[in-house]
Design brief:
By secondary structure, this protein is an all-alpha fold. Helices cover 63% and strands 0% of the residues.
């Protein structure tokens, strides 16, 4: 199709017509715009020029598709010209596409592109709070923020500031306004430029962040971006932001779990504020769960805390702490693996999660810790005949236990070998799945 063919087609499909149900396979204006965008991705320069001929009578979807398609494929000067034209003929309808295009060109941003962001950061959309709830009960601020004009503009401002801090003085007032937006999902997206300001205007950024958390509803902590901002605020000014962290830790929802992650990261980095609980056992249950999840990923940094959590009164906390056994085969865990195996084997967490322990030990390339034999003995005692019953989940663990016992036998002294043989006898008594073949292979 020539440019004239495209112009005629766009004019023909210039209405937001509703297609008859019996003609659902027949394309309309939206389908044409989609084809236009796909062709623009192949010939970006040509279709950028074509889009510059569109006027107010052209459906906004056409220029939106072109803007989306040509980002990164044309010069910034041409992109600026195209975005300014899209603003003139499509207004706020093109706002999200323009802001995303600018964000994707952040490293080459110009004053003209910044002016477009400033314009759309004051757009009317969104006018009402639309944040839905996910199946787990969390408010989905991210989805709503990314699908609103001011929300996309706020995120784009963050991209600009991360890429080029020279725009910080100009954009500071705009960021301060966005974090006080009446719509919570926009505020959540505005945490991105606030964090970017930490690199160039720390004190002003801390002031803005403090105002944000002080004036926002507790649901702001459903936002991953907001929690990231709070994490770095705790690192930089813990005494000032401890009250915000404590507020989140006390929430009776998944917010407390996320706050537990922040608490644990501060603990592991020796940056936990004095005003926050210093002992993990003083945290609410949900917060302990989040803290356990984080500490389990770096057990060598806080092994004492982790060992305590193996016997926590809450099963979800014990399960979160038990996740550490999945990384025992990694190099960082070598210095503490023997202690962790011993503590875990003797804990309340062991009966519900011991399968992960043997899978992790089976993957380890190091000599097995001597405490492994205790884990083998307790696993056989706990699982019993289930190790040979293919209808039960523990049968899948049987092979790993057998592999570990035989490895331990090969690497050990006479006394340990006797204990290994005792475990083999116990495995035989319960008909452990895979034992005859493993013994035959060993011979």
């Amino acid at each position: 199709m020539t440019d004239e063919d495209w112009s005629r087609a766009i004019t023909k499909y210039s209405g937001n017509e509703t297609r008859p149900r019996r003609k659902f396979a027949v394309g309309g204006s939206w389908q044409l715009a989609g084809v236009l965008g796909r062709r623009a991705a192949v010939e970006p320069q040509r279709f950028a020029e074509l889009a510059l001929t569109f006027d107010e009578q052209t459906l906004a979807s056409n220029i939106i598709e072109v803007v989306n398609a040509v980002v990164g494929k044309i010069t910034v000067a041409k992109l600026t010209e195209l975005c300014e034209h899209a603003r003139r003929i499509a207004g706020e309808a093109a706002g999200q596409a323009i802001c995303r295009a600018i964000a994707n060109s952040a490293e080459e941003a110009t004053d003209a592109l910044i002016a477009l962001l400033e314009h759309y950061a004051r757009a009317a959309d969104p006018t009402v709070e639309r944040a839905s709830r996910r199946p787990d009960g969390e408010v989905d601020l991210a989805t709503e923020g990314m699908n609103s004009t001011r929300g996309v503009a706020a995120a784009a401002v963050g991209q600009i500031l991360f890429a080029d801090e020279t725009y910080a003085p100009r954009l500071l007032p705009l960021v301060a306004k966005l974090v006080q937006d009446p719509i919570l999902s926009v505020r959540a997206e505005a945490t991105r430029p606030v964090l970017a300001l930490f690199n160039s205007h720390l004190e002003q950024a801390l002031d803005i962040a403090d105002d944000l958390f002080t004036t926002s509803a507790i649901e702001i902590y459903h936002s991953t971006a907001a929690n990231r901002l709070l994490t770095y605020a705790i690192y930089r000014a813990g005494a000032r932001f401890s009250r915000h962290l404590n507020r989140a830790l006390e929430a009776d929802s998944s917010i407390a779990v996320k706050a537990g992650h922040i608490w644990a990261n501060a603990l592991l980095n020796n940056l936990l504020p004095d005003a926050c609980p210093a002992d993990i056992t003083d945290l609410p249950v949900r917060a302990r769960q989040g803290a356990a999840q984080t500490i389990a990923t770096a057990p060598h940094l806080a092994p004492d805390v982790l060992v305590t959590l193996f016997d926590d009164e809450d099963p979800d906390v014990r399960k979160a702490a038990a996740a550490v056994i999945r990384v025992l085969h990694e190099p960082d865990s070598a210095p503490i693996s023997e202690r962790v195996v011993a503590a875990y084997t003797a804990s309340r967490a062991f009966p519900d999660n011991f399968g992960d322990l043997f899978r992790s030990l089976e993957r380890s390339l190091r000599l097995l810790p001597s405490t492994t034999i205790i884990a083998c003995e307790r696993a056989v005692e706990h699982a019993g005949v289930e190790l040979g019953d293919l209808s039960r989940a523990n049968a899948a663990v049987s092979r790993d236990i057998i592999t570990i016992v035989l490895r331990l036998y090969r690497q050990s002294n006479a006394a340990m070998r006797d204990r290994c043989l005792d475990v083999v006898d116990q495995l035989s008594d319960v008909g452990a799945y895979g034992l005859p073949q493993a013994i035959q292979d060993e011979r």
